[in-house]
Every structure is written in structure tokens, then in C-alpha cells.
Automatic annotation (TrEMBL):
Location, primary (coarse class): membrane
Membrane topology of the entry: Multi-pass membrane protein
Protein name per the record: Amino acid:H+ symporter family (PotE)
Record key words, sorted: Membrane, Transmembrane, Transmembrane helix, Transport
Species for this entry: Fructobacillus tropaeoli
Transmembrane regions listed in the UniProt entry: 28-47, 53-76, 88-109, 151-169, 181-201, 221-242, 254-281, 307-332, 353-374, 380-400, 412-433, 439-457
Key word Lipid metabolism present: no
Cited InterPro entries: AA/rel_permease1
Protein localization: Membrane
Length: 465
């Protein structure tokens, strides 16, 4: 047994030949925007402004975007050299060996599955408070909240997970059409909010721009960096595009276009949205689950309030679709390689999707969406993301030394400076996460190690060759 034995790119390419190549750069940008512009923009700016950064939350988004762009280039180079399913898990298995690949895959399961669950709870907050309530169709309290919030189950969150699962079961082509349409609607509504809200901005709400109560470390940047570490949740999704590289036409060129296009569009929208939001309402009032809708209520724009709610629902829906696809493809990859039961690596002949992987993702995501609050989900997601970011960034150094892996597509510029910088930034933001998050993720990783040594290593295709 050699737990650091490296997988072959050729084996992955052969196994993934069953997946259809239908995605273009335009489709990847739509998937990326679909994932990134969701709960992150409609909920997090308010929470982080109130808790960590004040109006300077816009700066936190900018910092998170810069680091995401750096790491995104690392993902794009890996996707160009290895257009395979599984994202960081598959890349790690080839570069670092099976055990590290498994740890990355286990971390990404946490990211993707909990991301869908978190988006589902965000969807439920907007839908229950602003759609059902307007028709006087309030669900019982027991069906609106998790047990940790005094309810029995978040019913709406569970239902939206099941609806999206049904769409994904019908194949990539249908989910792509639904995603592209929804992305256009939500981006249009966000831009409308920025334009309309601009006329209601009070410059007095920007003073102080970075309140002193958040200056928790030397140089007064504690709150901003803590907020930046938290709003990484707002940018997860661009890395999920790497999971789709096996289904992408000409991944050497299209994946980098998809990732950087996503990050650039997202940061412009996030910064503008945050500035308008904190300009309309004082940051101290924004610690609510639907801050954009609340801000419009404060300035008596009731009709616009309903419109932003529709945009939020479309936005969160598309984010769930992309992360659902990424998570199910990761489970498929782990099943394909024998690290999880092989049935999870099977692909439906009719719709060319990994049906069993989608089913297991549905069950886990629906359970978390129904039973766990959004704030607890978001912090755990960031940790799984940043662990993968660290290994992928430093992995470029090892990838460039592999003479057996040819890459005629995108390569990260300013090598080795940018890969090292991206890796160090990722480690810094892991350190900035709350202690409870680091402890929880440590427990998750210990469970993953136990699963590997009790099941995965004995059933691994690589170990049994």
C-alpha cells in the first residue's frame, strides 16, 4: 500500500469520456455567475457590514476577489493541463498522490454540499418573508426554521433542493438552458437595484467608513480581513467550473475565460451593491437575512422591494444549480476511482449524468438545508474552500516540473511568484477564520482520514492496480 501513489491523467481522461462536451466559455461564465452571484450578494454584505467591517465591507469583497482571481488562474492551468472531472481532488491525486487528493476531495465535499444547503436556507428566507407573507400564506414557525433556530425543519429549503435535483437529473443541456436564463434575469435586477438605490444614498451613512469597534489587530485591518475571509463564501463557485472541465469544449482556452470572466463581473457587482446598500441604510441596521429588501423598505420603495426579492430568488437558484453540479461531479469522481462505493461513479446512458452521485448529493444537502442555520454553514464552507485553494496554488510548482503532463493551453503568469502568493494568501485567510470554524473543520478532516483508511484505501482502483 502506497497512500502517496500518483494517479495517471490518461486513466481519468478515459473514464470521463462518457461525459458529453457541451460547455463553451459563455456557458462557463453563466455557470460561474450563477454560482457566485447568489446568497453571497443578497445576504452577506449586510451581515458582514454589521458584524465586521461597516461600509468597508466593499473593500473586503475586493480583497476576496483579488485572491480568488489569483487562485482561479491556478485552477485554470490545472484544467488546461488536465481536463478531467473532480476539480482539486483529481488534480491533487495526480500531483500530490492519492491521500492528499482524498483530503482535498473530502474538503470539497464540505464546500459544495454545504454551499447548496446554505443557498437553500437563503432562498427560503427571501421566499417565506417576502413572497408567501405578501399573500398572507405564512408557513407555521415549525416549518420555517431549523431545530437550532426553534423550529422543526426549514421546509422551503428542502423543497428547492429537491426541485433542482429533478432538473439536474434531466441532463446538462436542460440545466444549462435554465441557468443561462436565470442569470440574465438576476444580473439585470441587481444592476437595477444599484441604479435606483444610488439616488437614495446618504453620504452620512459612510461616516465612519471603517468603524473603530472593528479594529481588532495592528494597523486596524482586523475586521476587514475577517470579513474578507468570511465573504470567500461569496466567490466559491468559480472553482466549481474546474469540475466541469471534462464537459467543456476546448478547456485549455475556455476555462480561464470562464473563471476570470466570473471573478471580474462578480467583484464589480459586489462592490457596487455593497456601497449602495450601506449608503441607503446605516450598517448597524443590516444584520438581517434579506438586507437588500429591507433597505428598499426603509426608503418606502415597496414595489422595488418585491423586484429585488425576485432577483434574489433567481440568484440563489442559479448558485445552487452550479454548486449542485460541482458537488455531484466530485462524488462521481470519488466513486469512479473506488474511494467511495463504485455505484456513485456510474453514468446514466439516457441523460449522460452521474445519477447516483446526484441522488446522494440531494439527500445530504436536503438534510443540512432543513436542519442547520445559514451562518453556521457559511463559515464551514470557507474553510473547505481555502484548504483546496492552498494546495492548488502551490501545486502549480509541482505541475510545471511534470514532463509527462503536456499543457498547450493557459499557464499562470509570473511563475513562480503568483502561485506562491496565492497559496500564502489562502493560508492567511484560513488563520483569519473563527476558532470554532477551524475546530469543526479539523473534526471533519479526521472523519475523512478515518474513512480513507477503513474503506477507501482498500477499494481504491489505484491501490489495486
Amino acid at each position: 500500500m502506497n497512500i502517496f501513489k500518483k494517479e495517471s491523467v490518461a486513466n481519468f481522461l478515459s473514464a470521463d469520456a462518457r461525459l458529453q462536451k457541451t460547455l463553451t466559455a459563455k456557458d462557463l461564465i453563466a455557470l460561474g455567475i450563477g454560482a457566485v452571484i447568489g446568497t453571497g450578494i443578497f445576504i452577506l454584505p449586510g451581515h458582514e457590514a454589521a458584524s465586521h467591517a461597516g461600509p468597508a465591507v466593499a473593500v473586503a469583497f475586493l480583497i476576496a476577489a483579488l485572491v480568488s482571481g489569483l487562485v482561479g488562474m491556478a485552477y485554470a492551468e490545472f484544467s488546461s493541463a488536465m481536463p478531467i472531472a473532480g476539480s482539486a481532488y483529481s488534480f491533487g491525486s495526480v500531483i500530490y498522490g492519492e491521500f492528499v487528493g482524498w483530503i482535498l476531495g473530502w474538503s470539497l465535499i464540505l464546500e459544495y454540499f454545504l454551499a447548496v444547503s446554505a443557498e437553500a436556507t437563503g432562498f427560503a428566507a427571501y421566499f417565506n418573508h417576502n413572497i408567501l407573507a405578501s399573500f398572507v400564506l405564512n408557513l407555521p414557525k415549525a416549518l420555517q426554521a431549523s431545530p437550532m433556530e426553534g423550529g422543526l425543519i426549514n421546509f422551503t429549503a428542502v423543497v428547492i433542493v429537491l426541485i433542482i435535483a429533478g432538473i439536474l437529473m434531466m441532463g446538462t443541456e436542460l440545466s444549462k438552458k435554465v441557468e443561462n436564463f436565470a442569470v440574465i434575469v438576476k444580473v439585470a435586477i441587481i444592476i437595477l437595484f444599484i441604479i435606483v438605490g444610488f439616488f437614495y444614498v446618504k453620504t452620512s451613512n459612510y461616516v465612519p467608513f471603517y468603524p473603530k469597534e472593528f479594529h481588532s489587530v495592528p494597523f486596524g485591518m482586523g475586521g476587514i480581513f475577517t470579513a474578507a475571509a468570511t465573504v470567500f463564501f461569496a466567490f466559491i463557485g468559480f472553482d466549481a467550473l474546474a469540475s466541469n472541465s471534462a464537459e467543456t469544449i476546448n478547456p485549455g482556452k475556455n476555462v480561464i475565460k470562464g473563471i476570470l470572466g466570473t471573478v471580474i463581473i462578480a467583484v464589480i457587482l459586489y462592490v457596487a451593491f455593497s456601497l449602495v446598500l450601506t449608503g441607503i441604510v446605516n450598517y448597524k441596521e443590516l444584520n438581517v437575512d434579506d438586507p437588500a429588501a429591507y433597505a428598499l423598505q426603509v426608503v418606502h420603495l415597496t414595489a422595488w422591494n418585491k423586484l429585488i426579492t425576485i432577483g434574489a430568488l433567481f440568484g440563489i437558484f442559479t448558485a445552487m444549480v452550479t454548486m449542485f453540479i460541482g458537488g455531484s461531479r466530485l462524488v462521481y469522481a470519488l466513486g469512479r476511482d473506488g474511494l467511495l462505493p463504485k455505484k456513485l461513479g456510474q453514468v446514466s446512458q439516457k441523460h449522460a449524468v452521474p445519477t447516483n452521485a446526484v441522488l446522494i448529493a440531494t439527500v445530504v444537502q436536503a438534510v443540512f438545508a432543513g436542519l442547520v442555520p445559514l451562518t453556521q454553514l457559511a463559515s464551514l464552507i470557507n474553510a473547505g474552500t481555502l484548504i483546496a485553494f492552498t494546495f492548488i496554488s502551490f501545486g502549480i510548482l509541482k505541475l510545471r516540473r511534470r514532463s509527462d503532463i503536456q499543457n498547450t493551453g493557459f499557464k499562470m503568469p509570473w511563475y513562480p511568484f503568483l502561485p506562491i502568493l496565492a497559496g500564502l494568501c489562502s493560508i492567511f485567510f484560513i488563520i483569519m477564520l473563527p476558532d470554532i470554524t477551524k475546530i469543526s473543520v479539523g473534526i471533519w478532516l479526521l472523519i475523512g482520514i478515518a474513512v480513507y483508511f477503513t474503506y477507501s484505501v482498500r477499494h481504491s482502483n489505484l491501490q489495486n492496480q
